[in-house]
Specification:
13% strand, globular, 37% helix, alpha/beta
């Protein structure tokens, strides 16, 4: 019998893959182990909207092991705004009630071809609009480190599922920090790839020029492994890049000596909690010990990132969400007199308060007489922020910041103050505005709560971020620290 420290649900995806290919275990045993872990923790954490472990187990029973499939038999959880054929895609919203996806997103096609097994659709803030998963129309997902606190958002379910080890890998989406912030709060690794690195076909759109799909895991090798599977050009997504996908797994062992790392002076403000600052400074000291060069850099326009983001993202959302009208699919209100009232009642009853707030913001910013003053100006500021990053990357190879200004906050602490909630993403939104890759890695703990550090790279240079992450996890060994639940 396996002892406590060799239980399959505690193993990484790469370890499990190797064991499966050697014939030492079967995919069925892997799914059984994670299914048992899910059963033990599901009511406490509530990470999944649609668990699919039973279906996954039936599939795994008859699965033939393939040496050619990098994720053969590996369970994965999927954020519920990514389409999986034959199962509900709710986006955490009442308005998609009864919708069953008729097709697989490109990332799901690629995962299935690689042998991965989908074990569930995870909870999220409605239409990915939120930083705490409190805006889900169904229930709140809880942080595995403290059940009184949020897991972050909007990909809170995907982060919590990995943190609690009910799955070794999950996918989320990141529009302004929705992978990196929950990764920080839940003590796991979360990568937001370069815009265009991963196809968005089959991802339900929030803000199309900002959205990007990315993975969560406890180990850097697992992030590298899944990135090799899901990355690459897709003719069905006109914004996906034709750049060759690197062998991310082969880049991990390279040394980081001589790497130049920039520290953004505008980010080290009084709003950063002392515990975050201390953990971040310790991370920088370890980087220097390893031979990295640390230097201060400036992003003079980053102070406009949050207001810029909250004009562009809601504007795109107001356009993208116009399709939810009760006519073709999803929820439809009852008791209406005519078509206009049906539209109005359906959207009023189907959307939650945060989605309504952002639709109103976006519609206003795009309306006649205000477009130039708001949306057009925000797009100009976005260009200035992008140029700031381009100037910095002439001097440095990567940028390091805290991922969040605070550790995970308590439920209800910020729901009455939308601005306070938006500021949870103060270090992350600029990365989306510039289309750059960013990764959150666990760098410390404070009173039993994880602290995350963010690394930002040049466009399409995820390899360097993964190299630094791989080096760091061998220094800090954060993957050995697990919630006690």
């Amino acid at each position: 019998m396996l002892n406590l420290y060799s239980m399959l649900w505690q193993r990484s995806a790469l370890e499990l893959s190797n064991l499966i290919k050697k014939g030492e275990i079967h995919p069925k045993e892997v799914i059984e182990s994670f299914f048992e872990r899910f059963t033990q923790t599901k009511e406490k954490v509530k990470a999944y909207i649609t668990p699919l472990y039973e279906e996954a187990l039936r599939y795994a029973e008859n699965m033939e092991v393939s040496q050619e499939k990098p994720l053969c038999g590996i369970p994965i959880a999927i954020k519920d705004n990514i389409n999986v054929k034959g199962y509900p895609t709710t986006c955490g919203s009442k308005i998609l009630q009864g919708y069953i996806s008729p097709y697989d997103a490109t990332v799901i096609e690629r995962l299935k071809e690689a042998g991965a097994i989908v074990v569930g659709k995870t909870n999220m803030d409605e239409f990915a609009m939120g930083s705490s998963t409190e805006y889900s129309a169904f229930f709140k997902t809880k942080n595995p480190w403290d059940l009184e606190r949020v897991p972050g958002g909007s990909s809170g379910g995907s982060a919590a599922a990995v943190a609690i080890n009910s799955v070794p890998l999950s996918l989320g989406s990141d529009t302004g920090g929705s992978i990196r912030q929950p990764a920080s709060f839940c003590g796991v690794i979360g990568l937001k790839p370069t815009y265009g690195r991963v196809s968005r076909y089959g991802l339900v759109a929030f803000a199309s020029s900002l959205d990007q799909i990315g993975p969560f895991a406890r180990r850097t090798q697992d992030i590298a492994l899944i990135m090799e599977v899901i990355s690459g050009h897709d003719p069905r997504d006109s914004t996906s890049s034709k750049r060759e996908v690197p062998k991310f797994t082969q880049e991990l062992g390279k040394e980081i000596k001589g790497i130049r790392v920039g520290i953004v002076k505008e980010f080290m403000t009084d709003g950063v909690e002392s515990s975050i600052r201390e953990a971040f400074e310790n991370f920088l000291r370890e980087l220097e010990k390893e031979g990295a060069h640390i230097e201060e850099v400036s992003l003079p326009h980053v102070k406009y990132a949050i207001p810029c983001y909250y004009i562009i993202a809601p504007s795109e959302a107001s356009s993208n969400l116009a399709r939810y009208d009760g006519v073709r699919f999803g929820y439809r209100a009852k008791g209406y007199k005519d078509l206009i009232e049906m539209y109005s009642k359906t959207r009023d009853e189907g959307f939650g308060p945060e989605v309504k707030r952002r639709i109103l913001l976006g519609t206003f910013a795009l309306s006649a007489g205000y477009y130039d003053a708001y949306y057009l100006k925000a797009m100009k500021v976005r260009r200035l922020i992008t140029q700031d990053f381009e100037r910095i990357f002439e001097k440095v190879d990567a940028i390091a910041t805290p991922t969040t200004p605070t550790v995970a906050f308590r439920f209800g602490e910020k729901t009455e103050d939308p601005i306070a909630m938006y500021l949870s993403d103060i270090f992350t939104v600029s990365v989306n505005l510039a289309g750059l890759p960013g990764i959150s890695i666990p760098i410390g703990m404070f009173q039993g709560l994880p602290i995350g550090g963010q690394l930002i790279g040049k466009a399409f240079d995820e390899s360097l971020l993964l190299r630094i992450s791989y080096w760091w996890e061998h220094v800090y060994k954060h993957y050995e620290i697990m919630p006690s639940i």
